[in-house]
Specification:
0% of the residues lie in helices and 43% in strands. By secondary structure, the protein is mainly β.
């Protein structure tokens, strides 16, 4: 384990207002949408611009609100804020509180946000008896941002116990600084670090670029434009990333649990499976498992989760996602890393900004306007 002795960078690009994107046709072969499971959306709470959720102590769902607050969902709705950093962040552009995560023992809580200068920041708090300990707060990693969009900000602990951090390409449009394919920056990447292994963090010794002097050691995968959102299948450990396109194609990327990292998802040479503005497909390009164009619906993919709950057996094992502009909740059926069906679940969440997975595996849909829905059987 190599210890990093300074905060270098994180978080990435989110299109919070209209920059995510969903799916409608497999990258390998078209699949006609069909109803795979009968579901409904049950409105369980009203939040202030919810952006992320994480299962916390006691199986309760914690919800992050973009202005900077975190509240806990229970049978009575959302609690009073258990954390408030609203004086430390802004909501201009695509900034704000963008991600939250617990480690596997619920001993530490992590927040991902942009500070008043727009710098992407991941902070850590100790958790005792299910409560955040404010006095233990420390900064794990930071990344300056050249623009106010594409901040990313999603954070998750993987099955390996390491913290993964999604960073977009830095913003503007068309990746003007070439960050997606540049291994000497954390922008346009998925990072993998050990936040408890060093001060402020350590780098896992098996990260794919630790022996490359021309690459950042934190990088797990690259070639991403605006990864919004990513998740690990709690049943298999497979990784899914919803990556927002520039203007034509939205994509969902996939990597098996056996992956050793290092995947190049192509941006900004590629947009989905298509060369971007005369780009040349990299020899090591990993094409999306699913893509869709913007001709008929959608404008910004919102990545979700593989359903592993018990309430909807017909949905088990399917990857559930949506689109910020279209709002339709859909699912992908996969076999051996290939999409075999794209399903319209027949419900619409409005401006879907994120999904959350409860402690029992049930899924929630978060709309930027404030609605928190649970996906229930119809």
């Amino acid at each position: 384990m190599r210890v990093r002795t300074r905060s270098t960078a994180i978080i990435g690009t989110v299109c919070l207002v209209a920059t995510l994107a969903l799916t409608a046709a497999s990258a390998d072969e078209p699949a006609s949408p069909r109803q795979a499971a009968k579901v409904t959306l049950k409105n369980v709470a009203k939040a202030q611009n919810p952006t992320a959720g994480a299962a916390g102590p006691g199986g309760k769902l914690w919800i992050a609100e973009r202005p900077g607050t975190v509240r806990v969902l229970d049978s009575n709705g959302l609690s009073r804020p258990v954390l408030d950093i609203s004086a430390e962040t802004t909501t201009d552009g695509e900034r704000g509180l963008l991600g939250i995560a617990f480690d596997k023992r619920f001993a530490h809580f992590y927040i991902s946000f942009t500070n008043l200068e727009g710098t992407s920041t991941v902070d850590e708090f100790a958790v005792r008896n299910g409560k955040i300990q404010p006095q233990t707060r420390r900064t794990v990693i930071t990344q300056t941002q050249p623009y106010a969009n594409h901040n990313g900000g999603d954070i998750k602990f993987g099955p390996d116990g390491y913290l993964y951090i999604a960073l977009g390409d830095g913003g503007s449009g068309g990746d003007p600084h070439g960050n997606g394919q540049n291994l000497d920056t954390l922008l346009g990447k998925l990072l993998r670090i050990d936040p408890r292994g060093g001060k402020p963090y350590a780098i896992p010794s098996d990260n794919p670029f630790v022996s490359d002097p021309d690459a950042k050691d934190e990088i797990w995968a690259y070639g991403l434009r605006n990864p919004w959102r990513f998740s690990f299948d709690s049943g298999t450990g497979d990784l899914f990333i919803g990556d927002v396109g520039q203007s034509d194609w939205e994509e969902i990327d996939w990597a098996p649990a056996s992956s050793k990292g290092g995947e190049n998802y192509g941006w900004a040479q590629m947009e989905g499976t298509h060369p971007f503005r005369g780009g040349t497909e990299p020899a090591n390009h990993v094409p999306p498992v699913h893509e869709y164009d913007r001709a008929d619906f959608g404008c910004s993919v919102t990545g979700g989760f593989v359903y592993r709950g018990k309430a909807i057996p017909a949905l088990k094992g399917q990857y559930v996602y949506s689109d910020y502009c279209d709002g339709t909740v859909r699912s992908l059926q996969l076999k051996n890393g290939k999409v075999t069906a794209v399903n319209d679940l027949g419900v619409n969440g409005g401006e879907v900004i994120s999904f959350a997975q409860g402690g029992n595996g049930e899924l929630y849909v978060l709309a930027i306007g404030g609605s928190v829905f649970r996906i229930d059987p119809a």
